[in-house]
Amino acid sequence: MEEYITKAKTLIESLPYIQRFAGKTVVIKYGGSAMIDDDLKLSVIKDIVLMKLVGLKPIIVHGGGKEISYWMSKLNKQSQFIDGFRVTDEETMEIAEMILSGKVNKSLVQLMFQQGMKAVGISGKDGATIKVNKKYINGKDIGFVGDIKTVNTELLNVLLESDFIPIVAPIGLDDNGDSYNINADDAAGAIASAMNAEKLVFLTDVEGVLLDPYDQRSLISEISVDKAEELIQDGVIAGGMIPKIKCCINSVKNNVTQVHILDGRVDHSLLLEIFTEKGIGTMMVK
Ligand SMILES: Nc1ncnc2c1ncn2[C@@H]1O[C@H](COP(=O)(O)OP(=O)(O)O)[C@@H](O)[C@H]1O
Ligand SMILES: CC(=O)N[C@@H](CCC(=O)OP(=O)(O)O)C(=O)O
């Protein structure tokens, strides 16, 4: 009996959150281990199904960096990253597009279908949703890597209005119509801002932002824009966490109300974050 009461309490605890978020857009950046482990993958999909069924409007923006690196190594190509961005020559661009817009994107659409949901997989190319300029890092050419210039929300809105769950691969177009590889964190951040999302959640492979990357207990639960910029300067925030944090900063500055970095290795971390009082991971505040 006790067990049932606890379950009922948990359900009731979610009520104010369901009321608060009903009809609101939530952007989920889906990447890291939660994309590779099949059980975790299904658990994330189920969390998003629940969000949709109780009236939220989820948009998934996915990564797939590990999967691209895996296929590159099969083709005897080395992966090279600068500040968390993949150096993308023409061949790498082809591989990235096949993996992101094809394999990863459609496997997520398929999983949604198996859960009885209507999902549409697009890349930033579809409907010219994501337009880019070529990105340079400290003046250095890193190939076909896009800096997002504009997000056209038309197609995303059409999909949401027709009750589809949009699933977006981080590939964009420049003015000439050439393809560009975009860091998925950048794509999620730009889409959240353009859609005036209520919430932006990054699912990743760490507990959140850590003061000491080797010590889980050093998790920072709440971080301000100023503090985050300081930690990047000091080198505490490094590698793949840099684009993530920069996106968080831009998003809170662009009025995305809540921005979180969560541990995608924890079963149902998304559900816990959205529907319970437990604040897990790192929240970015202005
Ligand atoms: N201060 C920090 N706190 C947490 N992670 C950090 C920090 N600095 C660097 N990192 C690294 O950033 C990684 C997350 O970025 P990334 O691997 O690109 O994630 P994803 O694949 O989910 O986009 C962590 O696994 C960690 O190795
Ligand atoms: C330019 C750039 O770095 N693009 C990324 C796109 C995928 C991605 O961002 O995947 P995760 O979020 O899983 O790391 C890449 O090629 O790896």
UniProtKB/TrEMBL annotation:
Subcellular location: Cytoplasm
Ligand binding (substrate): 64-65, 86, 181
Enzyme class name: transferase
Cellular component annotations (GO), alphabetically ordered: cytoplasm
Pathway terms, separated by semicolons: Amino-acid biosynthesis; L-arginine biosynthesis; N(2)-acetyl-L-ornithine from L-glutamate: step 2/4
Domain Aspartate/glutamate/uridylate kinase positions: 24-263
EC numbers: 2.7.2.8
GO biological process: one example: L-arginine biosynthetic process via ornithine
Reaction equation(s) it catalyzes: N-acetyl-L-glutamate + ATP = N-acetyl-L-glutamyl 5-phosphate + ADP
Site residues by UniProt (Transition state stabilizer): 29, 244
UniProt keyword list: Amino-acid biosynthesis, Arginine biosynthesis, ATP-binding, Cytoplasm, Kinase, Nucleotide-binding, Transferase
An annotated Gene Ontology molecular function: ATP binding
Keyword Transmembrane helix among UniProt keywords: no
Keyword Transferase applies: yes
InterPro entries: AceGlu_kinase-like_sf, AcgluKinase_fam, ArgB, Asp/Glu/Uridylate_kinase, Glu/AcGlu_kinase, NAGK-C
Described purpose of this protein according to its UniProt entry: Catalyzes the ATP-dependent phosphorylation of N-acetyl-L-glutamate.
Similarity annotation: Belongs to the acetylglutamate kinase family. ArgB subfamily.
Protein name: Acetylglutamate kinase
Source organism per UniProt: Natranaerovirga hydrolytica
Gene designation: argB
